[in-house]
Specification:
Structural class: mainly alpha
Distance between the termini: 32 Å
Shape: globular
Strand content: under 5%
């Protein structure tokens, strides 16, 4: 089960790198950043907009761990669309880190033998005799829909126009359904993730919008297409509605 644990993976070296990236060589700024870390904790350091720009622009940023880079990029993208929940940023960053490992995106657990390549397959397995497996499948339905619609919206659009496959609205609907079903499961309460899944279902559109920004800015910054332009216009219109 994917959990919100990316911040817990950060180490002293990550904190020290964050301070240096924020300070950009200024002893005074480094001292201020250290004071923030000491008095208010690492979360406030990670929220500093200078850290994001440092990770992307400064040469030292290339030394960042995957955990540090993923969390900061996701956290700031979510804040940009009005989502302030750090636990949600932690969870979304964890999805990105886990699904970046080999074939993890196609498995409901890292050691699971069964592959799922479509949302329909996952939805069909959301109910069954094994409570643990149905719980994992439901959570994975939400995770997978968010991962694909968030980071690969052009892939969805291209397949929709060329092959008639489901559009991004379908992915949103299925993602919300997966998280909502996972929240209803008895194991959600036992694992302390009911509130997390309820929030993910309720705010799925915002999470997807934020990951679209991550995709456009960092994964495919030089890709331009009519589909991207239409999506960005649509996202902007939706953001006016939800803000």
């Amino acid at each position: 089960m994917i959990v919100a644990n990316v911040r817990g993976q950060l180490r002293r070296d990550d904190a020290q790198l964050a301070l240096r990236l924020i300070a950009r060589g200024s002893p005074e700024e480094h001292e201020r950043a250290e004071a923030t870390l000491r008095d208010r904790g690492l979360d406030d350091v990670l929220d500093d907009p200078r850290l994001l720009s440092g990770l992307v622009e400064a040469r030292r940023g290339a030394c960042a761990s995957y955990a540090l880079f993923s969390y900061v990029v996701v956290r700031h993208a979510l804040m940009d669309v009005g989502e302030q929940d750090r636990v949600m940023a932690d969870y979304v960053a964890s999805i990105l880190l886990n699904f970046g490992l080999r074939d993890r995106a196609q498995r409901v657990a890292s050691a699971d033998d069964e592959w799922y390549t479509t949302l329909a397959e996952l939805s069909g397995a959301a109910d069954g005799p094994d409570p643990r497996r149905t719980f994992l499948v439901r959570a994975h339905l939400g995770n997978y829909a968010l991962w694909v619609s968030g980071l690969f919206p052009e892939y969805i659009a291209n397949r929709h126009w060329r092959r008639g496959t489901p559009d991004i609205d379908y992915f949103e609907a299925m993602g919300r359904r997966g998280f909502a079903l996972a929240a209803e499961h008895q194991l959600a309460g036992q694992h302390g993730v009911r509130s997390l899944y309820e929030t993910a279902a309720e705010r799925f559109a915002l999470l997807r919008l934020a990951l679209n920004r991550v995709s456009d800015s960092y994964l495919f910054p030089r890709h331009h297409s009519p589909d991207r332009l239409l999506r960005q216009v649509s996202n902007a219109a939706r953001w006016k509605l939800v803000s």
